[in-house]
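Sequence, please.
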């Protein structure tokens, strides 16, 4: 009975040992196998075998592209503090798996240190505007510097991306105010140019209107003159002995009475016709004065006629 139990225990140990000698590695990964604490080999993806109790799978490295986000705070040349988020995409070089595992104890911290070193060596030499303008170049410098430094440790830098540059909130607010003022200035200039164009077009339209109106008046006066000339010619031919002056006086008198008739043709007219020349005003004043004197004389004569006779003296 005891022998049977021992055989079963031995068989179980042999089975577990046999099963423990096999292991699998996932795709895009690599395994580090050590023999008695010393590096033995690199296990490739798939089913692998190790010597039981002598070899150990100590670690599995991913060969996929990984991303590390680093946020660096620094000061620009014009004394503006900014935060620069950087995304570093890296991977383990397939031919340097040994270096990637044994040369660096903490590759993440190492990459962060190199990122800080590159950023602090570039941004403090630039102003804030230059930092925004050369954002892509800074990312290229970070990528090249990191790739050159991390190759000896078995890491390859795929890409370094600066996703944003974040200045202090007060600086950001001031920049927004400057941009808003600049845009408002451009809008004001544009509105002024538009108003200027409208005024020029309006002035050109008014000038054209005045020109056409002047041509119309000139043509009207020409037609009037032509008509008067024909009328005077016909009047002189029809009335023997009449001169051109007589015909002109007749025409002017006719137009005068036509005008008087038109003014008096409405019952709501409030127009008073008065002479307007200096001589005519003098004559009008003389007529008013004579009328007043005549009225006073008439009134005096009427009063004298109504006065009772004086009493007779005895």
């Amino acid at each position: 009975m005891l022998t049977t139990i021992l055989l079963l225990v031995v068989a179980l140990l042999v089975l577990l040992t046999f099963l423990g000698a096999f292991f699998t590695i996932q795709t895009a990964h690599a395994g580090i196998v050590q023999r008695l604490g010393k590096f033995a080999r690199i296990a490739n993806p798939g089913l692998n075998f190790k010597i039981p109790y002598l070899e150990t799978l100590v670690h599995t490295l991913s060969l996929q592209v990984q991303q590390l986000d680093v946020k660096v705070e620094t000061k620009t040349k014009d004394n503006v503090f900014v935060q620069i988020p950087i995304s570093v995409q890296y991977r383990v070089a397939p031919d340097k798996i040994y270096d990637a595992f044994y040369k660096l104890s903490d590759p993440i911290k190492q990459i962060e240190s190199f990122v800080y070193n590159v950023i602090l060596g570039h941004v403090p030499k630039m102003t804030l505007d230059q930092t925004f303008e050369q954002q892509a170049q800074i990312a290229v410098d970070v990528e090249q510097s990191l790739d050159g430094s991390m190759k000896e440790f078995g890491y390859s830098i795929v890409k370094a991306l600066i996703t944003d540059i974040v200045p202090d909130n007060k600086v950001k607010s001031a920049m927004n105010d400057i941009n808003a003022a600049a845009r408002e200035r451009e809008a004001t200039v544009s509105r002024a140019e538009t108003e200027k164009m409208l005024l020029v077009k309006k002035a050109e339209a008014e000038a054209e209107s005045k020109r056409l109106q002047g041509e119309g008046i000139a043509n009207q006066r020409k037609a009037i003159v032509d008509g008067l000339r024909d009328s005077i010619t016909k009047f002189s031919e029809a009335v023997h002995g009449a001169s051109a002056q007589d015909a002109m006086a007749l025409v002017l008198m006719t137009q005068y009475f036509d005008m008087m008739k038109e003014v008096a043709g409405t019952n709501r007219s409030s127009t008073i016709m008065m002479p307007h020349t200096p001589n005519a005003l003098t004559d009008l004043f003389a007529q008013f004065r004579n009328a007043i004197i005549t009225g006073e004389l008439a009134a005096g004569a009427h009063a004298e006629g109504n006065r009772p006779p004086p009493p007779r003296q005895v």
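The longest strand covers residues 81-92.
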